[in-house]
What we know:
eight-stranded mixed beta sheet
Amino acid sequence: MKPSIAEEELMSPGHLACQGCSATISMRYALKGLGRETAVVLPACCWTVLAGPAPRSALGVPVLHTAFASAAAAACGVKAGLLARGDSRTQVMAWAGDGGTFDIGLQALSGAADRDEDILYVCYDNEAYMNTGIQRSGGTPQGAWTMTTPGQGGSRRPKKDLDAIVLAHHIPYFATATPAYAEDMVRKFQKARSIKGFRFIHVLSPCPPGWKSEPADSIKLSRLAVQTGLFRLYEVEGGRSRLNVPVAKRKPVGEYLRLQGRFRAMTPQEEARLQRRVDEAWSA
C-alpha cells in the first residue's frame, strides 16, 4: 500500500528548535505535502532562528528571510520573480508566526489576499511572541499568562478571530491544521498546492517554553485542542465549509488547560465561562 505521507524528508534534524517544538513538526509535514519545488519566505519569528545560520539551513528548499511585517509582500515578489523567469511550478509559501500574522503582518496579508495573489500563506500559531520573550499577541487566548500580561488573570482580551478576517477576503482555499493529525495536515498542504490564487492555512502550534508545558506533551496538547472543541479542524473551498475531524463527544476544556502553566492563574469561574463559550460556539 502506498503511504499516505511522503517518505522524502525536506527538513533535516539539525535545526535549532526547543525540545517539543510543534513549529518544526508542522514545517516537516508542510514540506511533505508541498514537495521539493517550494520556496519558503520567513519573516521575523521563531523560524528565523530555527532554520539555522546562513549559509546553512535545516530546510532542503530555498529560503528567503524578510522583515517582520512583509511576509506576504515578499512572497508575492518571489512569485513574480519566478514567473518572470518562466517558472510557474515552484510553490511560494510565506511561513509566519501569530505575531507576524495576527498583528504586524496583517496589512500585507490582507493586501495579498485581496489581490488573490498566487501564494500560500501559513500562520503557525503558538499564541504569543515567543521568539522575543513570550509577549502577548492578538493570538493569545484570554486568561493566558505572558510576560506582558503577568498579573492575576493573564491576558484580559479574547483571541482575535483571524479565521473570520481571512475568510472575509473570499479566498479560494482556507484550512486549519495541527500536527497531532498528521495525515489531515499533509493532505491540506497537498490540496493547497493544487489550487491557484491566495491560500491560507492556520496551524495551531504548541510551544513548551511559552505555554509552560512539557515538551513531551506538544502532540497531546494539539490533539486536546481539537477534542475539547477549542480548535476546529476544517477547510473552506469555493465558499463551502467542511469539518474534517468531527468530535462526537468533546472533552472538558480543563483537560487542555491544566497541562499548561500559562493558565495556572485561571479561576474555576473563568474556566466555566470558557467552557460555556465553547459549548455555545458548537451549538450555533
